[in-house]
Structure formats: C-alpha cells, structure tokens
Amino acid sequence: MSGHESTYKPASGFTKWLDSRLPIIRLAHDSFVDFPTPKNLNYWYTFGGILAVCLVIQIVTGVVLAMHYTATVDQAFASVERIMRDVPFGWLLRYIHAVGASMFFLAVYIHMFRGLYYGSYKAPREILWILGCVIFLLMMATAFLGYMLPWGQMSLHGANVIISLFGAIPLVGEAIQSWLLGGPSIGNQTLQRFFSLHYLLPFMIAGVVILHIWALHVPGNNNPTGVEVQDVEKDTVPFHPYYTVKDGFAIVVFLIIFAAFVFYLPNVLGHADNYIEANPLVTPAHIVPEWYLLPFYAILRAITFDIGPIEAKLLGVIFMFAAIAVLFVLPWLDTAKTKSMRYRPVAKQFFFGFVASCLLLGWCGAMNPDDPIIPMGEDKLLVEFTNADGNIGSRPFDGYEEAAAFRAEKQAEGGVASMSIQKAPAFRFIHLAQILTAYYFAYFLVILPILGLREKPKGEPDSIHKAVLGQSSAQAVPAE
Amino acid sequence: MKLLRTLFAGFSALAIATTAHAAGGSKHADAPEGGWPFAGPVGKLEMDSVQRGYQVYREVCAACHGMKLLSYRNLGEKGGPFYDYEYPNANDNPLVKEFAAMDEILDPVPNDSGDYDYRPARPSDPFRSPYPNEQAARAANGGAYPPDLSVITKARGHGADGEGASYVYRLIKGYPDPETILTREGEDGLNENYIKFDDDKTHGELVQPLGQYYNPYMPGDVTAQWDGDPRHVPYGGFLAMAPQLTDGRVEYMDGTEATVDQMAYDIAQFLQWAGDPKQSQRKSLGLPVMIYLVLLSLLLWFSYQRIWRKVGH
Amino acid sequence: MSESNTTNPEEIDEERRDFIHIATVAATVGGAGLVAYPFIDQMNAAGDTKAASSLEVDISQIPVGGEIRVLIGGKPFFLRHRTPAEVAAAESTPVSSLPDPQTDADRLMPLPDGNLNPAIIVTSGSCTHLGCVPVGPGGGNLGDYGGWYCPCHGSHYDTSGRIRKGPAPTNLEIPDYEYVTASVVKISL
Fold this sequence. Notes:
heterotrimer, A: mainly alpha, Cytochrome Bc1 Complex, Chain C, 3 domains, two-stranded antiparallel sheet, C: alpha+beta, Rieske Iron-sulfur Protein, 2 domains, three-stranded antiparallel sheet, 3 helices
C-alpha cells in the first residue's frame, strides 16, 4: 500500500552494488513480488494482467509485421497477402495481430466494467481511472489506424467515414479533415502517415500503462468489497506467488480462447469486405466498423435530430465523443460513499442495465438503423396518382392485385400512377439505439449522481479480512 | 459460475454483433450436402477435388478471371494441390513446371532491345492474367470487371469456415434453369427475357436485362426489374457472367464425371485453398497448441490451489 | 511453514507442491521457447524471394575482352568474354603456385554438346574477402593479373577469377549455372 516499506534485501555482491546505483531490482521486487495485494480479488481482477499480455503480443507481432508490410496504396493489399502466403509463419503472426486487436478490446471492456462495478474509479483512484481512459482512447485510435493498413474496402471507406466526422466541426472542420488526410481525399500520403502513427501509438500506450501501474501502486488495488486495506497482515497477501499464479492461470485460459480464434476462426471477427482491395469508386453496401467500436457507432447514428442551431451530423459526433468524455469525469459524478456495488442493491440493477445497454448498442451499430425490430402491422402499398384533370391523390392497399388493378385503371384514364411501399410503423433499430443512448448518458449524468445521495448501502463489511471470514464460514466456498 | 454465465452472455452478444452484418438481399449460401471436408478444427481439403478445381479454373474461369496473388509454384508447395514430397522446392516439380509452361505470359523483364516479349511462364511467375489491365477486362466483358479470384473465398461470407466456398459453390450452380427463362417481345420491340416467380409470397415476373443474368445468390437489388409486389422482391441480383458450367464442360484428368455439381464443388474447394493456402498448416499447428494451453492451464490451476490452500479469500 | 512441523503428510504435501510448481514453470518456459520460433523463422527468406532465383543470360552479346554483370536475387555475377591471350594466361598458370589451386577447366561448365567454351567465364561478383564487387574490364583496373581488382582491400584476381594477391582467401565462386543453348546461360542461386 502507499508507502509500504521495501522488503528487498540484495543478496549478492553484484546486486548490492547495483542496488546502490540503479535500484531496478528493488523496484521490480516491490512492485511485482512483495507488493501487498488484497487477498479477496476475484477473476475479474485478472484482466489487468491479461491486458498487459495483449499489449505485448500486439507490439511484438506488429513490429514483425512491419518488417514485411509495404505502406503504399499499390502494394499494401498484396503485401499483406504476401505475409500470409510467403513469409515463414507470416499467416500465424498476421492472424495473431488481427485477432489480437479484438481480444485486446474484449479484455479492456471487461476490465472497464469491472472498474465500474466495484467503484475502482473513486477516491483515491481518480488518476488511475483517468489514465485508463487515456489508454482506452489511444487503443481506439491505434485500432482505427491499423484497420486501414490492409487497404481493403472497409479500410478505405471506414477511414473515410470516421475522418469525415471531423468535417462536422464548424469553421475549421474541413481544414482539419484535409490536414489529417494530407489532401482532398485518402491517398498514399494518408496510408503512410497512418502506418507511421499506428507504429508510434502502441509505445505511447505502453508509456501510459506504466503510469497506470504507478498510479495503481500508490493507493494499492481496490477489491470486490470496496473497503480499503486496514491491516496489511490480515487483509493482504504478497503479489508473488499468490497473484502471479492466479493471473497466470487466467491468462492461459484467455489464451485458449485467443488461440481458438487464431487457428480455427481467424477471419470471423473481421469483415469479409476487407479482403476486397480498396476501390474509391465503390462503397461496400453495409459499412460498419469492427465490433468493438459498434456501440459508439450506434450512438453516432442514433442522433438524427437537430438541437437548436446544432445540426444532427455535428450533434452525433458530439454525442459519440461525449460518450467517452463522460468516463473521464465519472469519479466526480458518482456521489456514493460506498465503492462496491455488491453492497448497493439498487445501483447494481442500474449497472446491469448499463452493461445490457452497451451490448445492445453494439447490436444496433451492426444493423441497418431503419430495419424493424418489432413490426406494428403490415407494410401497405401506396398508389400515388395524378388524374387527367391534374388532381393529385393517393390510396393505400393491402393486397398487390388490388393496387395493381387500381394503378392500371388510373393509367388507363390517362393519368400518371405509381406504386410504392408505405412502411408500417415499427419499432426500429434507430429507436432502440436512441433509447439506449439516452440510458447510457442518464446512467452517468442522472442515476449515479442522484442514487449515490439517496441509496442506503446494505451489508458493507468493516474490513476485507472480515468479509473473507464471513464468506467462507457462511458458505464454505474456498474460491470465488 | 456467475463469471461463466456472464462471459457466455458476452460472447453471444459478440456473436450476434458479428453475424449481424448479414442483412443483405441475397439467398443464404448453404454448404453442399454433407458439408465441406475442410470445415471444422480437424477438417482437411480434399486434394483430389482441389486438383480438379484447378483444372476447372484453367479451362473455364481463367479466360476472364485472374488470380494475381498466386504463382504457379504455389500449386506445388506444401499444402498445395500438387505438392510432392520428392520436390520440396516447388520450382522443380515437373507437374508445376508443365502447368506453368502451358501459359504464355508477358515477360516483366525487357529483352535486350528493350521490348517486352511473351514467353512460357515459369513456376516462380504469378498466374497468367487474362487481361493486361482493368480497362481491357471491362472492354471485353460489356463493362463489367471479372473480379480477381485470389481471395474470393475470404471476401465473401462472414469469415466462418467455408462460407466463402459455399458462396462460390451456390452461385456458380445457382442460375435458374434455362427452361424457366422465357422470352417475349418487349416494349421497345426487341425480345426480352423474363422469369416467372410463383412462390409462397413472391409472385410476379422479373425482367432480365440484356447481358445480365439473374442469380439468387448474387448480392443485389432487383426491384427495378420486378413486376410484382414490391414488398416481396426475389432474392439476389444480376451479374454479367452467364452460366458457365454445363455437364461435361471439362474432361477431368482423373476420370471423374464432370457434372455441374461436381465442377462447382471442385472449383469452390480450389478457391478455398487459393484464398488461404496455409490453412492446413494452420489447423495442424492449432491442435498441439490447444493441447499445450489446456495442459498448462491445468498445471497452473493445481499450482494455484496449492499456493492458496492456506489463505482464506 | 513452521520449521518444527516434520510430520509425514506435510512433507509429502510440500514435495508434491514443489513438483507441480516445477512442472508449471518448466511448461511455461518451454512454451515460451517454442513461441520464439516463428518470430525468428519469419526473418528467413520468404517463398517468393526463394523462388525468384534464376536467370537466363544471352552471352552472344558480350564483346570480346568485355563482360556483362547481372543481378540475381540482388547478388552480382560476372560473365566475361575472354580474349585468346587471356584464356592462354589462365590456362598456362601453374596450379601449384596458386593460393587456392584450381585449373581453368575446373572453373568452366560444359556446353550442351559436352565441350568446354573457354572464351566465356562465369563467376560470382562478390569478392571472397568481404563481399565488395571487384572492378573489371569496364572499370579501368584489371589488377596485377589482368582479371579483376577489388578496390576495397586490394585483392587481385586473374583472368579465371582465381585469387593471386591480397587478403581474399579463395577464388571467385563459380555459380550454379548451365548452358541452355550454346549462347544462353542459365544461372541459379
């Protein structure tokens, strides 16, 4: 915990000599060996370690792929396929890198939901949380940049859509857009800068991760009870071997899932259209981002209305960025004194609703917003006509035969008649996305601030030690 | 258990999110009856079929479709249809040399007077391209560009094993029976082809524009050519490729009867190999890796139990 | 663990625990070692690089006394059309006096009809010392023995490409080549 005494004792002459000059072994020892860690961390707490592994995998495979990749619009697509076909084990490295991006996001989302549930963003861990948000933003930027590199259809048109969002910014939007692209549209110069930045950002992530761990090691880990450590002897165990082995087990289980995708379904998390070489003249029929960005894409598309002078396009962008920005101020929005939702029966329900709304937003992001979820009645056929005398009218029909007969009749009379579909009212994906977007923001801006003041926590233990005792004596369950 | 349940819920949501890209107007392409031999974690490409598929590609598809990401040597490399352990270097494989030498390609290296000559291909050369460039391909095909087939099986479906091959298989044999395509005099006085639909809900006539062929597996929207209820437009779209396969179109070297179904099956499996030539290596490496990881997780589990056995948590 | 506790079950327990930990650590280290393999192997020559490794050269265009230089997979090769005097010099050199003894005939490949063509010598273009490309007829310096001269560290090769003077340890390498016809040579890596 904060200011815990270093227990490292250099054993040999060399380590003593080193310790008085660069106490790097002491730092590692105090951070990852002897660090006092609450004894009640469950498996949700292993995702930090899993994420570290993900970052290392991405950086190592990425550096290797960069040895073989060619960042020009003429050769990028073929060079990626050359990696898969001719470079020894290139197929393995490239599939690990591509699946690894999805796995990284899967892990980071679980890690974030865990932080939300156990109140890990609350004092004294605000900086820790904010650094995590910075990492998340950098991850999204890196993933977006990297997705362009294979130079497939989704690479090109996805990047085009996202960069066009900047064009929505008033006054300077277009200037920013063309500055980002290095020209009027995505070209070779854009691909090259994206490649350069895609190589740079992971190392920035690694830097912020170090700060994140530093900020973790000042107050120490939160834990499922949300009660701070009071007695190091009773409440904590040393990180090694207790958590190295537990994290290690979780990491390997995670790698089993990872490997199953790499070896058996390497392309299922991506989009088939990205195996069509980029063609600026043809946009794919269904343009969607990778799955991990779908919830934000759904929020972007849910905003179809203007508010005052702000137009829908800009408003959607604002909402999308606000959905991430709100995370940064979360430590000051949640007013509750109790950290863990384990002891907040009402907040817990809202939290699970929040998780569900995020998953459903992902679903909305993948679907065509105009498709019905719950149809209310059948679509009708509308025959619109202009009589010979110039009167305009229309008439709805249920059946096609009647509608066609009526159209023929009107045409025979010398007028103009045409048939179109009159969509039945329905509850559509766009409506669901709007409701979920409202809930997403309400959760942070309304529910957490108000609930924290009104809710009565239930059953919060006095200490980690007592919580562990109470659990094992009451249920006799050895491990959660 | 709660953890498991939640993880499961997460994964199902993920699965929905990934399959949800599927909103298209084309008919779902099922795998052939009995499934693909290469599907699943231990599935293997049926190499006889891949070999026949290469013959179909050479004799039928290659007239219009290039495969620029493949070289002749790939045919004889490990995991390829003509791999021979006696020739670990595919460049020396006599079959591969023979296939290569049957195609004339434009030498990428100029001759001594600076001109580019045609010469027989060598195993290290990429597959012969049917057209020098996209413009020539379009000019020869009524404005349509026959797509490169190198990664076509990865570029269709949703990334699950065999979806791309199923698409190729269904599309190529999915054209309506020529007898159902009727002809009448159109409004402009010229003959026009049309197809009558009389299914459950889809009643009406679909006019087939000149030089276009209807196929229910082709992604597209045929509303503009549909005379019938616009709420129930037939699946699929039009493509510029006429039906190519007829029984006996190729004469298989191994004596297999060349039915349309057989040829579609073989070409789909050849393209499945071509799209991901390392798939057999991938799957055969996958099994030991999975076994290793499972064993390691068991060891770690027991280590974990040992280390924590005296600590309440 | 208390030191006084020496009852049997506890001891067995400790041993088993040690065994499991050792097995776990060994499996992890072994697995990590195997994972390193693809990362190392990926830097080896790729399939396309290996495949593009032979070239056919028309030797009828080489002027007498001149040479042409070709690159195969990025490596230089010399094809030199020797004058009768140069051939005679190469053939008459006593083999025993050479640092790397080889007769001129040892350094030639037969024509399709089985005879040798001493006028044409095909050698690698990399100095056997440190890989510089020696200067030849086109470069204005044939060295002390009329063949090639390596400007990097002063190695002199004779008209058969044999090392005569300087730091290079061996003769210029003879590549794997064959006469496809009397006037076309196919050189392979």
